[in-house]
Predict the 3D structure of the following.
Amino acid sequence: MDRQQLRRGFFIVIAGVLAGLLLTAMIGRLNASASAGLSLGTSVIPEGDDFATRVLGQPWDMNGDPYPDIKTTFWNIDRNSFNQVNGAWSLQATSSDPALWLHWTGINNTQKVLKLGDRFPIETNKYELLSFHMCTGQDTLANLYWFYDRSPHNNPNNGISQFLPIQSGCRVYVIDLNNFPTFSGTWSGKPLGLRLDPAMEPISFEIGWVRLTSKDLSNIVPISWNSVSPGSELEFYASPTACAASDRILVGTTTAGSASGTFSWGSSLQTARISGVDYNLPLPESLEPGLYHIFMKDLSTGDFSCSSS
């Protein structure tokens, strides 16, 4: 074997060793990044009690046309702009007071027909959490109204509401109707109607779904972690598309008291601040039924850990 062949063989051996070391380092890095584990105590979550689903038999999932019709449901909204995009209503407001009648009261002196409020009043002692998914390109304010009589309510005066800060982007907003800081009235009795005014500017927006549910703190999903640093701040998310996706929905937070532990999602109402107001985080039944990826972010490292189920 001549000197050139020896040199070529030496470099091949060195290259092989370096490749082996690099592969070992990559495997070590993958194992390190995957070391924090996450598991669910259940992979099927009961839907919970949603007013539109259980009472009206027609969930407010925005997969169909507005009920009872576009003219009744949309106020100060360009009805020609109505479009359905990926299971959401895409709309354009025409004034600073757009409105969506979620549950139409009916009109004075009409018969109690169809799925109208005068036939199906809302039991406020049962349905306490309002959750909705909304997308918009700018910050704005929303209002919520509920009504106790049948009238067109061109200038509603018996609804109880206050400003709800809405941030740009796509978010899930959860409101405890019995305990929300900006409300000026009481969620009580049996309202015949419910209306969401999603903005205070003539803007375009999307409404993905709305749920009016019970506040069931027994519908618990245990999310267990291991191999995290004690004292780490942990955030828990759900996404309908993928683990760590940008459309993630924050569902809870906790501080890791030890390397292993369990966050009991749904055992209490937690809050997160949006534009200076503490909104609630979703309970399991707050989210629209479907398939979700559940995952955790360790704020001390920035790493995500994904549930295997």
